[in-house]
């Protein structure tokens, strides 16, 4: 199983996914939801407990932004935690007894690979257009949520380029298609980013408040306080537009508008000392923060739905 003491290359992650399925055939199913621009498979790992079918599910994706290496590392950490501790720890056992968990460890495989081979600071995917020399769209500006308004750019050379039209990017279209098909069961949406230590929820494309803003605020506040108490780390929390910046076309806002009322974006460690270059020695600390936040939010919200 994955070590939390190093980062995995794209090839290593594919190998790890395959190995993990072989080691836990009764709990893990691998679903190919589509392909990236460069035809890498987009593999979702479906985790289920040893029980009858359930009608609820959680979704988590990692690695939308290529250079945020702690994000895929967290998806791996989370999967390993669930598989190791199901039927051992009551918290994760009761979560998995109530819902299935879908995890997409690398949403942007082409970009992730590029950060290993060529440019460590690459953010976007690697899609090519005939009319521009610049490569890539920002996948977190390409969802159909107030697409390409203030906080995104229509310039293909920009780091926050929104793409040619909503869901123009195959990675975004694959995720949106999957969630549209599963929106009756998916109750939680988590998207993992770095850095700056924030627990965010909709909206980011407008300053207007989400319908259940007070409830979402309460959940992330509780999670932030627990992280502070257990691990001493400070996480800011709130609606995206006010807490970080106005940014349309994001996956969390899109998922929320599909009816997934518990929708979150986490920005993991650190606060800027290492930034995207978080050293391997801090992987487990960053992952513990995020794991505690997810367990806190899901456990509390599940009591109400
Ligand atoms: O700008 C982003 O996409 C995220 N920050 S990052 O530094 N990782 O790039 C924040 C996303 C918050 N949610 C939305 N903008 N919808
Ligand atoms: Zn990001």
Automatic annotation (TrEMBL):
Catalytic residue positions: 267
Recorded GO CC terms: extracellular space
A GO molecular-function descriptor: zinc ion binding
Ranges where the Peptidase M14 domain occurs: 6-301
Cofactor or coenzyme needed: Zn(2+)
Record key words, sorted: Carboxypeptidase, Disulfide bond, Hydrolase, Metal-binding, Metalloprotease, Protease, Signal, Zinc
A biological process term (GO) from this entry: proteolysis
Similarity remark: Belongs to the peptidase M14 family.
UniProt protein name: Peptidase M14 domain-containing protein
